[in-house]
Design a protein that fits this description.
The structure holds 3 protein chains of 3 kinds. In chain A, 75% of the residues lie in helices and 1% in strands. By secondary structure, chain A is mostly helical. The longest helix of chain A is centred in the N-terminal third of the chain and has 32 residues, at 2-33. Helices cover 73% and strands 3% of the residues of chain C. The chains are: A mainly alpha, B alpha/beta, C mainly alpha.
Chain lengths: 285, 147, 630
């Protein structure tokens, strides 16, 4: 009981702090990769606190509401995951959060946010199968959909699910909103998409979106952890290496089209994820 | 302490510049000057920006555009006119299509001189703009409190 | 017993009344009262019988078998007369009718059909079906009262044939009750053919050339399925050593003896529930007035197909036929979900989504494990509620905005907030956690991973497009237009509101009460068939309750939230003109920024995908029967 309470508090309070630090770390590493110095580590927090102090402007009175729903469901998703709940339900709850994010952009109804929303949906369509395949793969190995049981599995999950992990890495880039898959809201605003899905959001609401993304990123790192949960040290190093790899990818690719995103992620999920599951099913029988 | 000073996001708009100042603005983002050190981000979106950087003078075509961009920025916000054209119209001042400096359309807080303005001057100007932003933020806060 | 007789006979009796009464307020009141009585009857049946075992009933009425046989022949004769209007390439329809009638006549006249001791039965699953037919069916009929008035108002060129419309609608309800309560397969076949006939007549209701052709296509494909049913009965009475047409007995005997007739009847089930390769009839059926689409083509009649499949699920468990059946469902689910992405006509989206969800249920039935059947029944319930709501919502929207195209629905949240909320609730019910469909889909995944990984993969890839097309539809509805059009004057009628409101309430209520629904009826049925059942994890139920509570409370928080943001124009690169989505284009022209959804037609092509899936599913059906015969 106390452990659950601690986990809940840990998620709600510590996760955004970690997420913000991760974002700061990301920005510094990115800058170094471009032989720049980069901002301070706490820069993302400065940004968010600044946004909090600005006047809230909006295109219509409805749009900010959806972002409250977005962060609420992201938090619920994380609670579910970090208290050891059902992995499939976690994925579905994450989808609910994503849908609210998209609805907010639709509600604003400007060309940029609209295109951002459409592309975000295409991204969701691209990564959703792989997430479900991941949950199924973990179930086939551990015989449970519960994060608790998956985390408590004594053998290295990665040894059973290498294909699933490759597929997951591929969609992780989409999910972390990194190049080449930052289709829905580009990193840099001065591009054809402006800021895509977040174009019409400002002030507090933008801060909320930013914090929600921090939560999401920590949740995704938690997903990586599951593959290596047999040994915490290995797991944490795996997370660091994976994240550095994502930053490298981010800095070495230009944005790709949604055609490519959709096709490639389905193909990668199909080849690596599905064949991994088929082999598991074959060996299981 | 205001966090505005630590994270000024800028919006860069080219009025009718010869692109000289624009290149210098973008030069600030490069590894040599690296203004991201100060938390400055080029947003390209008025809804996200705190500082509006305008290069070049205002012409008859973009009067409404500049007004729109300014109006779409959330308070507190500052405007910096970069280069002599943005300040006064510069050598284009007498052209048939030129209305003049940026302050003929919207209030300008900081004028950054030069033709073209040097990156150092631009960074200096943005930093000066932050002081103004700080004051505006306090005014905004007290306005909110009284309201 | 009396309540079953009431449900079977009452709608048929009142339908005769509606066949003669002209559409006036007295008739309308009578329709509403009948709806209430039918709903009350089904609820009464549920209260009396649910949570208990299976009850069988005898009917002591002489020569009932002969009456049913006469009825079957009458239906065939009627259809043959109608076939005078067919086109040359529809030549196969009368052949099918004659074949079916011939088979049934052969069985009957050679006195081969054995007596069934208990003609009717009621168990927890047929109660659920009865509730769907009784409550949702009558709500749709209630809605139809005012909808049909509007319909003829909008289509003055059409002859007002409301008498035959309501006659068929209520007669159909009787037939549906017959399907779910019959323990005698020959009688069930009769009710089954009545539903085909009703569908045929109602699709042809607009009497346009398109409607007539589509109605014949529906008839042809359903008769193809019906031929499977007839062959199944022929096998049971002529070739099976057991020589029985008792449904309970057939299921009890299981796959060892009964697989062939059950597979033949399942073929009828596939056709009736519009699975690939038969799906085209359901798309064509969308020409009918919306209550017909809601009642026959999404909530009840197509459920007759899956009803029989779920009934036979224990027979299919672990067999090759079951595997093939599940694959047909899985392929249908994946393909139609993808095709739905490419559609902008709301009714076609709903039709494709209906086929997809039925596919999922068919897949569950084919797998046939207790978890899969639990999921299948849950899907049936939730789908019936949400889809009826969506169809009726779209029907009302179509009459008010004059279009059923999703692209025309933007700004609905501002212009018609009531209808927008109704459709939003329906869509949420269709694909988001914690609403019923998603819970069931979740159960499906768990069931599939345990038994059939190929199906699980099909499901994983099929649910992603589902998310896409529902979310973009929601997006259109919630988008706030730059310039508000004048608030619409003509209100949605009270009858339509009643049906929409109750269905929206039911969508939320079923999501909130699903553990209760599961424990008091679905699990009881599963236990009675499989002697074990699924257990819902406490923690997950809590989390889902929290999510549902959030979804209900957050909108309230929105209205309570005092501070409204300062409104500014949307970002159009600064070139905005006025308040609308207009901007200054090149050489000073005013351009309007218009936004349309993505339909991904460059990646997914409807015609190609349909061809592929028809090919694949026909191959699976061939594989299914060629190996069954071995």
């Amino acid at each position: 009981m106390i452990k659950t309470a601690l986990l809940i508090v840990g998620w709600v309070v510590v996760a955004p702090v970690l997420g913000g630090l991760l974002a700061g770390f990301d920005r510094i590493v990115t800058a170094r990769m471009q032989s720049r110095v980069g901002p301070p580590l706490f820069q993302p927090f400065y940004d968010v606190f600044k946004l909090m102090s600005k006047r809230s402007v909006a295109v219509n009175k409805f749009q900010n509401f959806y972002m409250l729903c977005f962060i609420a469901f992201v938090i619920i998703t994380g609670l579910l995951f970090f208290t050891g709940g059902d992995l499939l339900l976690t994925i579905f709850a994450l989808a609910v959060a994503g849908v609210f994010f998209v609805l907010g952009a639709y509600s604003a109804n400007s060309p940029y946010s609209n295109i951002g929303a459409e592309r975000e949906l295409i991204q969701m369509m691209s990564y959703e199968p792989m997430l479900i395949l991941m949950a199924m793969g973990m179930f086939m190995v551990t015989k449970s959909f519960h994060v608790n049981d998956i985390m408590g599995f004594s053998k290295p999950l990665i040894a059973y699910l290498p294909g699933v992990f490759i597929g997951f890495l591929f969609i992780l880039t989409i999910k972390l909103r990194k190049s080449p898959f930052d289709l829905s809201s580009s990193h840099h605003g001065h591009q054809e998409l402006v800021k895509g899905i977040t174009t019409e959001f400002s002030g507090k609401t933008l801060a909320i979106i930013e914090i929600a993304h921090w939560y999401e990123n920590i949740l995704l790192l938690g997903f990586i952890y599951m593959f290596f949960a047999f040994n915490p040290i290995v797991a944490i190093s795996a997370i660091v290496i994976t994240y550095l790899f994502e930053i490298l990818i981010d800095n070495s690719y230009a944005r790709l089209t949604w055609h490519f995103t959709l096709k490639s992620s389905w193909i990668v999920s199909g080849i690596f994820g599905v064949s991994n599951l088929l082999i598991l099913a074959f060996l299981g029988k | 302490m205001s966090f505005l000073k630590k994270s000024p996001w800028v919006l860069h708009y080219d009025g009718s510049s010869c692109n000289g100042c624009d290149i210098e603005v973008l030069a600030c983002l490069t590894p040599i000057y690296d203004i991201e050190r100060f938390g400055i981000v080029n947003t390209g979106n008025p809804k996200h920006a705190d500082v509006l950087l305008i290069t070049g003078s205002i012409n008859e075509q973009n009067i409404e555009v500049v007004k729109n961009l300014y109006n779409q920025m959330p308070d507190p916000k500052v405007v910096a006119a970069i280069g002599i054209c943005a300040a006064t119209g510069g050598i284009f001042r007498e052209c048939y299509n030129i209305k003049g400096g940026v302050d003929t359309v919207i209030p300008v807080d900081i004028y950054i001189p030069g033709c073209a303005a040097r990156p150092e001057a631009i960074i200096d100007g943005v930093v000066a703009a932050l002081g103004v932003l700080e004051k505006k933020a306090e005014a905004f806060k007290s306005m909110k409190v009284s309201a | 017993m009396n309540i079953i007789l009431f449900l079977l006979l009452f709608p048929a009796v009142v339908s005769l009344v509606f066949a003669v009464l002209p559409p006036n307020s007295f008739r309308n009141m009578l329709v509403r009262i009948s709806c209430l009585l039918i709903a009350a009857g089904s609820i009464y049946a549920a209260l009396v019988f649910s949570g208990q075992g299976t009850y069988f009933f005898k009917v002591n009425f002489p020569h009932l078998d002969k009456l049913f046989f006469a009825g079957e022949m009458l239906v065939s004769a009627f259809l043959l007369v109608r076939c005078l209007k067919i086109k040359p390439k529809e030549f196969y329809i009368p052949i099918l009718i004659v074949l079916q009638a011939g088979i049934m006549a052969y069985c009957e006249l050679t006195h081969a059909v054995p007596e069934v001791e208990h003609a009717f039965y009621i168990d927890n699953f047929s109660i659920i079906m009865a509730l769907i037919i009784g409550i949702i069916g009558s709500l749709i009929c209630w809605y139809a009262v005012s909808y049909m008035k509007d319909y003829h108002h909008h289509h003055p060129e059409m002859k007002n044939r409301q008498r035959s419309f309501f006659f068929i609608l209520f007669f159909f309800l009787s037939a549906m009750f017959g399907v779910v309560f019959s323990n005698n397969l020959v009688w069930m076949y009769f009710f089954w053919e009545i539903t085909t006939l009703s569908s045929f007549i109602l699709i042809g209701y607009p009497k346009t050339e398109e409607a007539t052709r589509n109605s014949f296509r529906a008839l042809g494909l359903n008769l193809t399925g019906g031929l499977g049913f007839a062959l199944g009965i022929l096998y049971l009475v002529k070739f099976s050593p057991e020589h029985t047409v008792d449904l309970a007995r057939v299921i009890e005997l299981g796959s060892a003896v009964m697989l062939i007739p059950v597979a033949l009847i399942a073929f009828a089930g596939i056709a009736k529930s519009a699975q690939m390769p038969f799906s085209s009839w359901l798309l064509g059926a969308m020409v009918a007035p919306t209550p017909v689409s809601a009642l026959l083509h999404s909530s009840t009649m197509v459920k007759a197909g899956i009803f029989i499949l779920i009934k036979f699920a224990p027979v299919f468990q672990g067999t090759w036929a079951g595997y093939c059946l599940a694959l047909i469902g899985g392929v249908t689910f994946l393909m139609t979900s993808i095709i739905a992405v490419t559609q902008s006509n709301a009714k076609r989206v709903l039709a494709y989504s209906t086929i997809a969800n039925l596919g999922l249920i068919v897949a569950c039935a084919g797998v046939g494990t207790y978890e899969a059947v639990w999921a299948a029944i849950m899907l049936t319930i939730f789908h019936a509620v949400s889809k009826a709501l969506l169809f009726l919502g779209v029907g009302s929207i179509e009459h008010k905005i004059g279009s059923r195209d999703i692209e025309d629905m933007d700004g609905l949240i501002v212009n018609r907030p009531g209808l927008a909320m109704v459709v939003l609730i329906g869509i949420l019910g269709m694909f988001l956690a914690p609403f019923g469909m998603l819970i069931s889909k979740w159960a499906c995944i768990e069931a599939f991973v345990n038994s059939n990984i190929v199906l699980a993969v099909l499901l994983a890839f099929g649910s992603a497009p589902t998310l896409f097309f529902w979310a973009k539809w929601m997006g259109k509805i919630v988008s706030v237009p730059a310039k508000q059009s004048d608030k619409a004057k003509d209100k949605v009628s009270a009858d339509e509101w009643t049906a929409l409101g109750v269905l929206a309430g039911l969508t939320v209520a079923t999501a909130a009460l699903f553990p209760l629904i599961s424990s008091i009826s679905v699990e009881q049925y599963i236990i009675s068939v499989y002697h074990q059942t699924v257990t819902l994890t406490q923690g997950n139920i809590i989390i889902m309750s929290i999510m549902l509570a959030l979804l209900i409370l957050l909108p309230l928080a929105f209205f309570a939230y005092p501070k409204k943001p300062m409104l500014v124009q949307r970002y159009l690169a600064g070139a905005n003109i006025g308040d609308a989505n207009a901007y200054q284009g090149s050489i000073g022209q005013t351009q309007l920024a218009t936004m349309r959804n993505y339909y991904l037609t460059s990646v997914f092509s409807e015609s190609v995908l349909v061809k592929i899936s028809i090919f694949v599913t026909i191959a699976i059906i061939v594989a299914m029967f060629s190996v069954v015969k071995l």
